[in-house]
Each structure stands twice: as C-alpha cells, then as structure tokens.
Amino acid sequence: MRCQVLSALINYCLSINQRLKNEKPMSFYPPERTLMGPGPSDVNPRILSALARPTIGHLDPVFIQLMDEIKELLQYAFQTKNELTMPISAPGSAGMETCFVNLIEPGDTVIVCQNGVFGGRMKENVTRSGATAIMVEDEWGQAIDLNKVRDAIKSNPNAKALAFVHAETSTGVMSNAAELCAMARAADMLSIVDTVTGLGGIDVDVDGWQADAVYSGTQKCLSCVPGLSPVTFSERAAKVIKNRKTPVQSWFLDLNLVMGYWGSGDKRAYHHTAPVNSLYALHEALTLLKEEGLKNSWARHRLNHLALSAGLATMGLELLVEESARLPQLNLVGIPEGIDDATVRSDLLNQFDLEIGAGLGVLAGKVWRIGLMGYASNPTNVRLCLAALENSLIKQGLAIAGGIAISAANAVYNK
Amino acid sequence: MRCQVLSALINYCLSINQRLKNEKPMSFYPPERTLMGPGPSDVNPRILSALARPTIGHLDPVFIQLMDEIKELLQYAFQTKNELTMPISAPGSAGMETCFVNLIEPGDTVIVCQNGVFGGRMKENVTRSGATAIMVEDEWGQAIDLNKVRDAIKSNPNAKALAFVHAETSTGVMSNAAELCAMARAADMLSIVDTVTGLGGIDVDVDGWQADAVYSGTQKCLSCVPGLSPVTFSERAAKVIKNRKTPVQSWFLDLNLVMGYWGSGDKRAYHHTAPVNSLYALHEALTLLKEEGLKNSWARHRLNHLALSAGLATMGLELLVEESARLPQLNLVGIPEGIDDATVRSDLLNQFDLEIGAGLGVLAGKVWRIGLMGYASNPTNVRLCLAALENSLIKQGLAIAGGIAISAANAVYNK
After folding, report:
1. How far is B3 from chain A (nearest CA, A)?
2. Residue range B374-403: average pLDDT?
3. Alpha-carbon distance A26 to B404, whole Å?
C-alpha cells in the first residue's frame, strides 16, 4: 500500500516535471531531408555556411560591393547585360508580381499562356493590375502551342505583352522561350517570362531571346534557400517602367524606387532593409554556379535526369511529358494504377527522409513531381530515390522486380 | 642581363597567376561589425546557427508544426490572441503594404499621422491603394499630437482607418499607441500601427490597445536577420478583409490566400514558397525573447538606454527627443556644431567596426541614430560606442575630457 502511494507520488512529480519542461520554449531542429520535390531543393552546405555569417548593415560600403557582385553574377546566370538585374527581396511569386505591376497599367491587354498552375497566377496578376488577360490555354503537361499564340497575337495586335512560363513547376514542362519571345518582339509586345524552375538547370538565354522581363527563384536549380527572386529587365522594359502614366500600385515592388538602392554608383538610397543574410547565400549559390560553369551545370542536370528516367522505366513508371519538352530538373511521373499517392510519399518521407512532390491542381493524386535541382541533382540522390520508390511500390503490392532500377541508372552513368 | 629577363618572366607569370585568381569567383566574407544603427541589429549567434540548419520543404509536416509554434510565439510577443498573426515573407515595408492593401479599398479615406519617414510611406500606401490620405503632421522628432488627431477624426468621421507609427525608426520617437487606438475605436475606425522598431524593445500591447492591424520587422529588437515582417490583425480587421468588395491588388500579399497556408489545421494549401531558413531564425529569435520574458527585455532595453544617455551627456551630446517620448532602443543624438557627420561614422566603422545610423530625410546630417536593439542592447556595446565616439570627437577637435563617458555609464549599471 505504502509502496503504491509512493509510486503514485513519484509519477505525479514526473508528470509535473514534464509539464514544466514543455512550458519552456524550445529551439527547432529540423530533420535532415533529401529534397527531391519541386523546390526547395537541397541547399549546398557552402551556401548554408554563407547564410550564417555575421549580419552587416544594408548600407555598409562592404555590403554595397556585395550587391554589385550579386548583380554581375546574376547577369552571368541569366546570360544578359541588362543593367536592371537584381534579386527581389521576397519569393518567386513576388518576382512575378514585380514584372506585372511595373510593366502593366490599368486598361492594358496582356496575352497569357497557361499550361499549368503558374499561367493561372499570371492571369491573377494581370487582372489585379487593372488589365485584361487574353488566355491561351494548353493541356497541363503539354508545351505551349506556338500556333495558338500566333493566332492570339494576330487577334490582339494591341496587346502590350505576352506572358508565359518557360519552365512550368507544376508540370515539369519546358516551352520554347526563344520562339515565344521572338513572336512577342515581332509584334512589338513585351515578353514576360517565368523561369523560376529554369535558371541554372537549363539554358536561360535572356539576351539571346531578347526577352523583356524574366523572373526566377533561388530555391530551385540555384539550390539556395527560398525567399528571393532574381529578376532582369531589358532596356526596352526599363523605358516602359520609367514612362508609366500611373504609379506602380505596389510601393514595395516599385522598381523606380528599388533601383535607387540596387542601381549603380556609390550613393544608394535606402528603400527597404535588404535581407542581408539571404543575399550572402545567394552570392555563394551564384559563385558555385560560376565555378561549375553554366554549360556543365545544364549537362549535369541532363545526365541525372537520364539516369533517373532509366531507373523509373524498369519499374514501369512513365514520364508524362513528351521527351522534347521535359525539364531535366523536374520529372513528372505517372502514379501507377492501384497505388496510393499519399502512402508512397509518406513512406519516402518517414522511411528515407526523402521528399518528392505531389501533383498540383488537375494533376493532384495523378502524378509525382521528382526534382533533381541544383545541388540535389546528383547520382546519390538518383539512386536513393529509385531504391526508396522500389521499396515502397513493392510494399504496396506492385509486381516489379527489385534491385534493377539502380543498375539501369548506373548504366547511364557508365556510358 | 639574363637575370633581368628571368626576373621579368617570373613577374609576368606571377601577374598572370594573379589575374587568373581574380577571375575565379570568390566567396564573400563580411567583416564582423557591431550594429548600433537603426537596424539590422546584431544577430544573436544562436539565431545565426538556427538559420543555417538544413532546409526542409515548406509543406513538410514538421515545418507545419514549426509554423504553428511561430504563430504562438508571435502572439506572445504581440500580447495578442489574434488568430490572424503570422510573419509576412518579406521585409517590414511589405508588412506595411500587407496592412494597407488588405484593409483599404479604392475610394476609402484614411487618416495618416506623420512625424517621420514612415508616416510618409504610409501615405504612399494609401494613395497607391486608390484611397485618400488625410495627413496629420507633426515635427520630426515629436510624438504625435493627440489633439490634432482628435480634430482630424472629428472632421473626417467617415474615414475607414487611422494609421500611425508607434515607434518611428527615423526619429527614435514613441507615440501613444494606446490612446490613438482607443480614439480610432471610439470613432469606429480601424487602427493601423507601425511598430517595426517597437516589438520586443518596448510594450506592444495589441489586445490591450485593441489595435486592428499591427506590423513589425525581425531585424530590430527581435535581433533576427532582416527579411520578414510579423503582422497581426484583430477579428474586426479580419472581417473587413473577408468582406472586401474588390480583390486585394497584390496577389502575393492577399491575406485571403496567405491564410490558406498560415491558417490552422493539418491541411495547408500552397500559396508561395515560405522562406524556410529565415523562419528557423525567427523561431529562435522569438524563443530567446520568451526565455528572457517580455518585461525583462523591456527593462534591459531601458537600462542600457539610460547608461548610454549618461555617457553621452558627459560629452555634451544631447538626445533630441523629449524624455517621455524616447525610444530606449533608438537614440536620436544631435551632432555637435563643427563636427562632420560622415567623418565620425566612417571613423567608427573603420576603426571600431561599429555602425551607427545617419539621420534620414530632414534630419540628415543633423543627427545620429544610435540603436540598442535586441541582442545589441548590452553594456559592452554601450561602452564600446561611448569610447569610440569620444575618441572620434576628440580627434576632430571637440573640447571634451576623455575617459569619463564610460564611468558615467557604469554608474548607471552599478546603481
């Protein structure tokens, strides 16, 4: 009896102790994931280390030097000489909004191509800028049909801009940016290009395309932390911004003001407080890209994509995008009949600390999106992903032979 | 002769080598500054270390937990139960814009108090939202005159909101937020409060004030890296946002959409990619604040402010804001006759790696802004700043006795 009371008392004390512990706020330690979804992708440790360097002021002369270097490195990544090239201090969606609210005015017409989620978001941006969006729609998973765009341009010769997604993050589709930009220019329209998922993974040739406004993200093939959006504007676009009739509806994204800070010269006017540490990280990410070289980076993305595809094929898993339009950095994989989407993704996350992406919008439940972006585009990740998928699919009763997928990938590497 | 040729050759090779080295892109290593300007402030090493933890996905279940914790910690910091409390994925200016574009519609009238730079920025936000700003102006360096505001409310009974700056970063002035919010509520207007520099350093009592929309920044008294803007909205404000007649002009900042991601429950809809690592840092910053306790943090800010003031007084340097309106975390110091602003600031930066702030707008060249914010609010920084200023002012010929300032500060600490 006494023993029971004692034991109850001890338990009570332990429980109080636990509650006290729980009341103390706790630091957060994330698990170590392998990120093979549609982004963020794995961040190179060199970039994480740059991120954690001591913060300095956003008007410190040393920081101004850093900004100049970032601008130059972004010009390298975008393959452009555009003076108006910089990172917006917010994620890719804000980069998109920067392009629309600066170039478009109430009453304008914009032709918007939609073949996935992000064309739809462009439409939202157009209408919220007080303009009219003429939609050119293609099936999700298909590249933009150039003929349809040609027709839309013919029917709307006074449209101010043609907006499209070069690398559709929701479908893994690459569209023909060179042709689309050329069509816009021939019709004297501005081109607005979303290449959030493209930059660093495939050819983004801003000057070659004569693109007018291009935005990207840091958390895809640049393998940097999410939160910044590199943008670049042609001289033609810069003139349009300077000569607007109405003020830009966003103060924060008004490039006429932002340029006072990101422009050239020693004197930089304070506009907003720059995200200093994130910019350290972006600088390191771009430095890594330059060390590797653009072409080598594209080739690496392509090779790992081929190896992954070969492995997936052994399991009967199909890439849903036709070969010519596939983004090597983002693979759209059909979910086999009878296999539960969420179960497999949880399996991968819980058993392998491996994240792959779910389908978005009309493709939800029908596809996985397997990213091989930036630092995450490497043979180890390809092998891990194949092994994990094989394991999970066999567990769910799919009749496939185990152990073959990795060999198929290896064969691609050993060619 | 042969020796000269050899030497020339060697020099040539060395110079080529140097050029090759220079062409290799280089990582960026910032100097280690002490940040005593108007922000960013010194970041606690615990926060920098949290920042560099491995990135995980923005839809990872573990990340969703982190978001819930951040929300709770922000509610603690803001002293509110507001459900609609979260960090905006961009700097303080975007937090400001979030409040205006979500609450204000074209045709609305907003009473805006201006007693520094940021009231002017509020005006910009009002007009860019298609609304009319009724300005209530006070001298820069003065608190907002409540009588003027009362008159403006009387003259504009149909105004939708009263907007004001609680803690003016450009002048170091604190205004009476409790009274101003009460006046707004009595007149059935929404209150919009800028406390970018306030949160964590002085009492920000969102529920006590019955404030409707409050925004802050991470890089001031939270001592976190710049790039995020905590915001909180009352239920009344949330209803106004839900019942808008027109869509929010910004897609990125539309809280009706953002809430699908930051709302409660297990299912979070993707809106934009959250700045994952910056949110690790914010979580750690808020954890540190909770560990210390709000009141202890305010008391620490006040004590260091008193010590700094005592030291400055020995040099004849005056605080320009009257005592009752002084922000302890941001001290507006008049520049003595004959002393060159820029020379002193360069001196501090180059000799002591110490950053203090210049005057903004009408106060440029007339004042310094010395921040004692968050982690940077400590006795060592107070002493460093006093010693550095003393040294620089004596060098410039100001007739003051050296070595007294620190003793005066110490006397405050030893009380």
Report:
1. 38
2. 95
3. 42
DSSP assignment of B235-286 equals HHHHHHHHT-SS--S-STT-HHHHHHHHSSSS-----S---HHHHHHHHHHH
Check if the beta carbon of residue A233 is closer than 8 Å to that of residue A213: yes
Q: What tens digit of pLDDT does each residue of A10-37 get?
A: 777 666 665 555 556 699 999 999 999 9
Tokens 């509806």 belong to residue = A249
The answer to whether A228 touches A251, Cβ cutoff 8 Å, is no
**Tens of pLDDT, residues B92-121:** 999 999 999 999 999 999 999 999 999 999
Contact B90 A92 (CB under 8 A): no
Domains in chain A, start-ordered, CATH in brackets? 45-291 (3.40.640.10), 293-414 (3.90.1150.10)
* Each residue's pLDDT tens digit, A142-174: 999 999 999 999 999 999 999 999 999 999 999
Contact residues on chain B for A286, CB-CB shorter than 8 A: 25
Bond before A40 cis per omega within 30 degrees: yes
Bridge-based pairing of strands B190-194 and A367-371 is unpaired
Task: Please list every residue in chain A whose beta carbon sits closer than 8 Å to the beta carbon of residue B32.
Answer: 54
What is the per-residue pLDDT for A23? 59
Q: Which amino acid is at A400?
A: I
In chain A, residues with a C-beta closer than 8 Å to the C-beta of B226 are 55, 58, 273-277
A277, A289, A290, best to mutate vs chain B, most B CBs in 10 Å = A277
pLDDT band with cut points at 50, 70 and 90 for residue B269: confident
* pTM summary value: 0.94
Q: What is the mean pLDDT of residues B382-407?
A: 94
How far, CA to CA in Å, does A377 sit from each of A56, A89, A167, A173? Answer: 32, 26, 17, 18
Please determine, for residue A182, whether its predicted confidence score (pLDDT) is greater than 70. yes
Structure tokens at B56: 């995980």
Span A252-280, mean pLDDT? 90
Distance CA A356, CA A343 (A): 12
Give the mutation candidate from B32, B69, B250, B349 for the A interface (greatest A CB count, under 10 A): B250
- CA-only gyration radius of chain B, Å: 24
Task: Report the alpha-carbon distance of residue A288 to residue A269 in Å, rounded.
Answer: 30
- The answer to whether A214 touches A231, Cβ cutoff 8 Å, is yes
- Token digits for B219? 């890089």
Of A27, A252, A290, the CB nearest to B94: A252
CA–CA gap between residue A275 and residue B75 (Å, rounded): 24
First to last CA, chain B: 77
Q: What burial letters (b/e) apply to A331-361, b meaning 16+ CB within 10 Å?
A: bbbbbeeeeeeeebbebbbeebbbbbbbbbe
**β-pairing, A132-137 with A109-114?**
parallel
Give helix then strand counts, H and E, for chain A.
15, 13
Q: Which residues of A touch B50 (CB under 8 A)?
A: 27-28
**Cβ separation of A60 and B349 shorter than 8 Å?**
yes
